């Protein structure tokens, strides 16, 4: 059975002609993100992004990896004056508000050729880098780091030793220890992120993803799959998503923080509902409870609150007092 290194098999499985992300159902059919599928959380996310955009005195947002435009539609509701543009590997999704522009991208680390010289924009990449394929390495019995190969049915074998550039990345960011330990070499994501940032002349690039730092790398990696709502073994045959957490500290950024801290600082997490309102205005009380509950989901420890927000500022400064709410 033919086998290829994980990065090659992964790229084909997600972005090839019949790739997972080209299928009509879209990501929401297979897994929930903050942007879609979690009641009330999309609105909190949209308010956070809109507030951050206004704090940088910007009024345009370009979203890379926009799925089927779910977050952009919510952003349009939250702040209709924002100019919005979504980019993903599929054609313009049906039902997207007419005011939202759309364009198509190759997928993975590759971005549209004509995306460039962006001026006065916030570029958002919400759960994009985790689906940018990377090299997976494993320490063999002699202590050498070797490239992990995979068949179409998901069986793995060790291939050649890691190349020099990937080895250097590992030495710096993810030193591997014992036989059987795995590394997910973030170099392709570092380059994809740098490429995205290089397309902005003035503005801010905001990435949001689950990730780790050198002090808490998972010894066996995080490579996994999702299909129809369930976490599954990652199999590169186009039938499931394939994802791995992002090494956030190897990216060239201006600052990074956890989602729970940023959403709280941006003032988009509702306070507890006042119980007295349950008698005076039960409808509003229920709405306040739902909003509070979504806020708790978006900031939960061991959950969405652990997401990293990593930001590269390009010729702009943030004025944290500005708020859209
Ligand atoms: C995990 S989904 C996240 C979708 C959406 N941002 C959300 O949070 O619900 C990743 C998305 O990134 C898209 N994607 C991957 N590489 C891309 C690229 N180079 N350009 C544009 N979109 C890309 C995929 O097609 C997919 O829709």
Automatic annotation (TrEMBL):
UniProt xrefs under Pfam families: Methyltransf_28
GO MF: methyltransferase activity
SUPFAM superfamilies the UniProt entry points to: S-adenosyl-L-methionine-dependent methyltransferases
Superkingdom field: Bacteria
InterPro entries in the record: NDUFAF7, NDUFAF7_sf, SAM-dependent_MTases_sf
Keyword field: Methyltransferase, Transferase
One annotated GO biological process: methylation
EC numbers, comma separated: 2.1.1.-
Protein name: SAM-dependent methyltransferase
Taxonomic source organism: Luteipulveratus flavus
């Amino acid at each position: 059975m033919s086998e290829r290194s994980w990065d090659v098999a992964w790229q084909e499985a997600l972005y090839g002609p019949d790739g997972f992300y080209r299928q009509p159902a879209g990501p929401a059919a297979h897994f929930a993100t903050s942007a879609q599928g979690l009641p009330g959380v999309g609105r909190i996310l949209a308010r956070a992004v809109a507030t951050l955009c206004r704090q940088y005195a910007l009024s345009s947002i370009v979203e890379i990896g926009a799925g089927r435009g779910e977050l952009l539609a919510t952003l349009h509701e939250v702040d209709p004056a924002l100019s919005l543009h979504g980019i993903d590997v599929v054609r313009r999704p049906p039902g997207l508000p007419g005011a939202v522009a759309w364009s198509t991208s190759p997928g993975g680390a590759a971005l549209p050729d004509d995306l460039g010289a962006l001026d006065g924009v916030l570029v958002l990449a919400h759960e994009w880098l985790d689906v940018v394929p990377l090299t997976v390495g494993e320490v063999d019995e002699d202590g050498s780091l070797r490239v992990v190969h995979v068949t179409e049915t998901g069986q793995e074998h060790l291939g050649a030793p890691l190349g020099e550039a990937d080895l250097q990345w590992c030495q710096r960011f993810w030193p591997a220890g014992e036989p059987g330990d795995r590394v997910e070499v973030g170099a392709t994501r570092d380059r994809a992120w740098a490429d995205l940032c290089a397309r902005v002349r003035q503005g801010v690039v905001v990435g949001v993803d689950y990730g780790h730092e050198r002090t808490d790398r998972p010894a066996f990696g995080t490579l996994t799959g999702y299909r129809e709502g369930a976490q599954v073994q990652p199999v590169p045959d186009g039938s499931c998503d394939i994802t791995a957490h992002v090494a956030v500290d190897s990216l060239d950024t201006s600052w990074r923080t956890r989602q729970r801290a940023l959403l709280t600082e941006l003032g988009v997490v509702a306070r507890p509902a006042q119980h007295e309102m349950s008698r005076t205005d039960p409808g509003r009380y229920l709405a306040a409870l739902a909003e509070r509950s979504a806020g708790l989901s978006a900031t939960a420890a061991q959950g969405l609150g652990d997401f990293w927000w990593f930001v590269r500022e390009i010729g702009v400064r943030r004025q944290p007092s500005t708020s859209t709410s």
